[in-house]
Amino acid sequence: MDRAGALADLAREVIACRACPRLVAWREQVAATRRAAFRHETYWGRPVPGFGDPGARIVVLGLAPAAHGANRTGRVFTGDRSGDFLFASMHRAGLANQPTSTHADDGLALHGVWVTASVKCAPPGNDPTPAERDACAGFLRAELDVLDPAVVVCLGAFGYQAACRHYGVRPRPRFGHGVEVAVPAGPVLLCSFHPSQQNTFTGRLTPAMLDDVFRRATELAAATNG
Fold first, then answer.
1. Amino acid 49: pLDDT
2. C-alpha separations of 217 from 113, 192, 213 in Å
3. Closest by Cα among 33, 58, 53, 52 to 43
4. For the whole prediction, is pTM greater than 0.90?
5. Which residues pair with 113 in a beta bridge?
6. Which CATH architecture fits 3-225?
């Protein structure tokens, strides 16, 4: 089966998953009660699969869907300010056809990049338990095995740790913005601070800093392709 078909099959498995009772209850509670600003919308309220170009050489790996972002829209990093910051940078890097990601049918297309999360359901407090993280690891494993990327851009320490577990990186170098870890016979793990409001509003992560990460990711992917 080709990559697109394999990823579509995986997406169906992800969406159907009910393995973690706490996450199932939370995502569905959020979808039922809704935030006042979105009270007229129908929330997705299910696990959120990855999204992007099946031929991607770059994978962007985050933590989990936001309760009123991807858990509402059904597309990863879509409908919240973290996604606004992320996709604007990807657009500047030539990896996205538009700088915004507002809903699943907004026309966004990614080029050479796939975006996903380590945990596929929105967790309470944006904090999955180790057991929930491990229960979802099989989906990430399958995703990365199908894509076989040249670069994994790890957004935040959680995504970085998930990538290191998957690729067996031991000892794990300390996480930091711009840190690169070359996996033997595998991809380069390229770290970035997460584009959360906590980081972007305080200036810990600026547009220029994230642009530098995607510039480096495209350089690494091009060198591997060459």
1. 98
2. 10, 11, 6
3. 33
4. yes
5. 58
6. 3-Layer(aba) Sandwich (3.40)
